[in-house]
């Protein structure tokens, strides 16, 4: 490493004009502010991480640049849908925190999500409340109700 200082080399940080600018031999070079692919796509889910996982997973020899963006958007949409339905289930049970039970109720009561996740077991999710019709007491029809009221 050279013992010459920044002042001697002509490289110095310009703090007066712009925050992210460097002065190299009296030429101002703008530094680009880095933006993630998630921010550019307007997503919350990490596009870069999904791209890395797709490459490391040996799903295909080449992964296009649009594939992780599309996959991140799809996963984000599905998660938002499930969380919204689970939040409604939690509100119905007068709870403020979503539990695995609320996730289970949300998924099993929605036809499309149930079909997508029919083979998935949610730990601590419980089962849907259901009583078989055979086990229920027989319901009285209108005629039977009218006959009982006439007898009294």
The largest sheet, given as strand count, sense and whether it forms a barrel, is: 3 strands, antiparallel
What is the β-strand count?
3
The CATH topology of the largest domain is Histone, subunit A
What's the average pLDDT?
Answer: 86
Class computed from helices, strands and strand pairing: mainly alpha
Rg over alpha carbons: 31 Å
Q: Alpha-carbon distance between the termini?
A: 108 Å
Number of helices: 7
Estimate the helix proportion, in percent. Answer: 40-55%
CATH architecture verdict of the largest domain: Orthogonal Bundle
CATH class category of the largest domain: Mainly Alpha
Question: Which geometry do the CA atoms define?
Answer: elongated
What's the number of structural domains? 2
| Name of the CATH homologous superfamily of the largest domain | Histone, subunit A
Strand adjacency order, main sheet: 1-2-3
Order of helices and strands: HEEEHHHHHH
Low-confidence stretches: none
Oligomer: single chain
**β-strand amount:** 5-15%
């Amino acid at each position: 490493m050279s013992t010459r200082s920044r002042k001697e080399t002509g490289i110095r940080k310009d703090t007066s004009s712009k925050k992210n600018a460097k002065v190299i031999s009296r030429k101002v070079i703008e530094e680009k502010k880095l933006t993630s692919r998630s921010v550019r796509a307007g997503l919350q889910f990490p596009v870069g991480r999904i791209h890395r996982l797709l490459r490391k997973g040996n799903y295909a020899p080449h992964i296009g640049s649009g594939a992780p963006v599309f996959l991140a958007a799809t996963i984000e949409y599905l998660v938002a849908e499930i969380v919204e339905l689970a939040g409604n289930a939690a509100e119905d049970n007068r709870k403020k925190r979503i539990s695995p039970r609320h996730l289970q109720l949300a998924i099993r009561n929605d036809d499309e999500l149930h079909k997508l996740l029919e083979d998935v077991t949610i730990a601590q999710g419980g089962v849907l409340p259901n009583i078989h019709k055979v086990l229920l007491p027989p319901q009285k029809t209108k005629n039977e109700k009218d006959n009982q009221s006439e007898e009294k």
